[in-house]
Design brief:
Length: 412
């Protein structure tokens, strides 16, 4: 065929071209590098004694590899021969050198796992939603037209119009899940999601598409059916306690358009804002086609992580009995129960072990613009038996402070 195509001329005979070099392979003998690689300390002479029975010979600083060991081509192969002749069981177990020699979870990953476990422990089911939504979702949650959260990153090639922007709030996505469960006739559901929102840099009120947005992780909770406002508040308190956050305060929030103005509260740890929870506004529920009450919470993951205390304080079982007292006071209707409780804690002193609200009453027996609020107080001293007189004195101090700060009077 070569001749037929005039591509060459056929000649007779055979030509044998051998690329094999029959001379022995030689490798640099580097005992220090071998010791460093294996993590051992074997002298040069001992290494020679280990390698000679295997057919290796030595020429000054070179090792001559026998012809039948075609697999030995570099220093690492020599180290392997030294290791198996020296004995793998004699090589000590050591950690690799470097800053990160062990695989482990980061602080953020560990906290995310603990937070998710705490949510599941109180009966919440985890959901996952898309990070991109429709701009119409902002209208559904009654977001003001001039809100900076409406400035979202627009996706260049969206899957559909309903997935055209990166969300700046996680609430619409969670309410879509609630609506889907409601439409599937699930009588109740308690849901949570740890997801990201995307807050872009703003230039003249518009999202800057040339820089990456800030990703904030949000814990979003939604409940309907069997869980009400106070039940959700209780779930949050258990979650906070589980992850090491104590002394959380609540402040009424009437300005959040997505929530019922009379059933919404901001959550604080000291002066640090953690998030919001409450009943979703009825109009928002109507926008999502849900004909029942839904309670939700939105908490900043980063703020929760920064607020967590690693300390866990355990108290021994009390040896001495406690003294219980009930305190009911009449105060202005607008005075928050949280303020009353904090005042009692501050002025009752160290004798007060526990305080719990058990009744709020407004009716014919209470003057207009007033309310009756009642607490159960527990007094105890860990090292001795507390007397009734001491408990009564602490109670009188608290009542005096309530009268001075809020004009509260003991209910007769």
């Amino acid at each position: 065929l070569v001749e037929e195509l005039c591509a060459g001329e056929v000649v007779g005979g055979l030509i044998d071209i051998s690329n094999f070099d029959p001379s022995p392979r030689k490798i640099s003998f580097e005992p220090d590098k071998i010791n460093k690689l294996l993590g051992i300390s074997v002298s040069k002479d001992d290494m020679i004694k280990l390698l000679l029975p295997l057919g290796f010979t030595f020429e000054k600083d070179l090792i001559v590899v026998p012809s039948f060991r075609a697999d030995v081509v570099r220093m690492a192969d020599i180290a392997e021969e030294v290791a198996r002749m020296y004995g793998y069981d004699k090589i000590p177990t050591t950690m690799l050198k470097g800053e990160m020699t062990q695989g482990r979870l980061t602080t953020e990953q560990k906290f995310e796992f603990e937070l998710s476990e705490a949510c599941r422990a109180v009966g919440l089911y985890e959901v996952q939603t898309y990070s991109f939504i429709s701009p119409k979702q902002y209208d559904k949650i009654r977001m003001p037209a001039d809100s900076s959260l409406r400035a979202s990153i627009v996706i260049t090639n969206p899957l559909s119009e309903d997935m055209s922007i990166m969300r700046t709030t996680s609430l619409p996505s969670m309410l879509e899940v609630v609506a889907r469960n409601y439409n599937f006739r699930n009588a109740y559901a308690n849901l949570f999601e740890l997801s990201a929102i995307y807050l872009p840099e703003l230039i003249n009120g518009k999202a800057d598409a040339t820089t990456l947005p800030k990703e904030n992780k949000i814990l979003t909770i939604a409940c309907y059916g069997k869980t009400g406002f106070y039940e959700l508040k209780g779930l949050l308190e258990v979650i906070f306690q589980s992850i090491g956050i104590n002394s959380v305060l609540y402040e009424s929030d009437r300005q959040n358009p997505a929530y019922h103005p009379g059933r919404c509260a901001k959550v604080f740890l000291n002066s640090t804002y953690l998030g919001t929870f409450g009943q979703i506004h009825p109009q928002v529920m109507k926008n999502f086609g849900i004909d029942l009450q839904v309670y939700s919470a939105e908490l900043s993951f980063e703020t929760l992580l920064a607020s967590v205390s690693s300390e866990r304080v355990y108290q021994p079982v009390p040896k001495f009995p406690a003294i219980s007292r009930d305190l009911a006071v009449v105060c202005d209707k607008e005075v928050p129960a949280q303020s009353i409780e904090e005042c009692i804690k501050k002025n009752a002193g160290k004798l007060l072990e526990q305080i719990s609200l058990f009744d709020v009453y407004e009716g014919t027996q209470i003057p207009n613009g007033k309310k009756s609020i009642a607490y159960s107080l527990t007094f105890r001293v860990p090292e001795r038996t507390l007397t009734d007189e001491e408990a009564d004195n602490a109670l009188r101090k608290a009542l005096k402070a309530l009268s001075f700060e809020f004009g509260a009077e003991l209910r007769r």
